[in-house]
Structure to design on (290 residues):
């Protein structure tokens, strides 16, 4: 996989190959898989995202009881016209909650790039397919765009909260989704990279502070923020707003920030929200339950 977004942009300029295809070709070289087979494998992953959304159970609660039903509440509020964000944004929030809850309830999800950030890309992509009527083929191409961005982030920094805080999980997922949206809206590789940079910049420094060490609070609701942030970053890009810091340098900044984060806010369940009086009380309750 490529080591920088700049490298992918240069290849597109030089050879006229779209971002998604550059990523697919590199993946096929690494795996030895034919391009048609690889495309179908990516289709399976996208369909699994849609299945997770379709199979959501609003009555299901996580084992801890901390998560469950929020996606259903969001759907009901949206359908009742109670939300100020409108139909599309309401659906994105709803689907992000549903997928995050499904993960907490041990249902099948697609780590994109991690389980804790599994709701961001599906919420954005599935909603856009439904509302903007993109073909599934186009959505799979966007999946490759997202994967390419995630691959560069993984190479230059990290994707795990334990390594770099939640900026590495929700931040990376938001960057991946933003780049995919920029592609769907007709953006070239420069636009894709710019959208990813804007999204990641907005979430730099985000702590990973799961209450009781569970990927539930505040993780599920942070998927909503990552998804909405991705749409905002893509819209800014479409409007011609650019990141003053080059995309690869934004990723490098994320790595630097993550390395300087205190251990207590890197998925240990000690600091941040996990360390609040209520967070500690919940953790103690969980310990008593075994």
């Amino acid at each position: 996989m490529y080591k920088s977004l700049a490298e992918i942009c240069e290849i597109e300029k030089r050879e006229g190959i779209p971002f998604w295809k550059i990523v697919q070709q590199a993946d096929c070289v690494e795996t030895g898989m034919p391009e048609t087979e690889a495309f179908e494998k990516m289709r399976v992953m996208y369909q699994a995202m849609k299945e997770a959304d379709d199979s959501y159970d609003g009555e299901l609660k996580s084992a801890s009881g901390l998560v469950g039903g929020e996606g259903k509440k969001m759907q009901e509020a949206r359908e009742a016209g109670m939300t100020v964000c409108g139909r599309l944004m309401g659906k994105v929030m709803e689907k992000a909650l549903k997928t995050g809850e499904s993960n907490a309830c041990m249902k099948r999800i697609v780590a994109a790039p991690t389980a804790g950030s599994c709701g961001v890309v599906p919420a954005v992509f599935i909603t856009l397919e439904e509302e903007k009527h993109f073909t599934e083929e186009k959505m799979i191409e966007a999946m490759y765009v997202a994967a390419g961005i995630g691959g560069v982030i993984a190479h230059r920094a990290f994707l795990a909260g334990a390594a770099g805080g939640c900026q590495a999980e929700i931040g990376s997922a938001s960057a991946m989704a933003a780049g995919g949206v920029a592609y769907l809206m007709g953006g070239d590789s420069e636009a894709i990279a710019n959208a990813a940079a804007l999204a990641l910049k907005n979430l730099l420094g985000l702590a990973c502070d799961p209450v009781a060490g569970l990927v539930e609070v505040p993780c599920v609701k942070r998927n909503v923020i990552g998804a909405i942030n991705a749409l905002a970053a893509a819209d800014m890009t479409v409007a011609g707003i650019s990141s003053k810091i080059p995309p690869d340098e934004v990723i490098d900044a994320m790595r630097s920030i993550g390395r300087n984060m205190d251990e207590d806010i890197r998925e240990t369940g000690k600091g941040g929200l996990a360390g609040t009086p209520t967070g500690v009380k919940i953790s103690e309750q969980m310990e008593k339950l075994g």
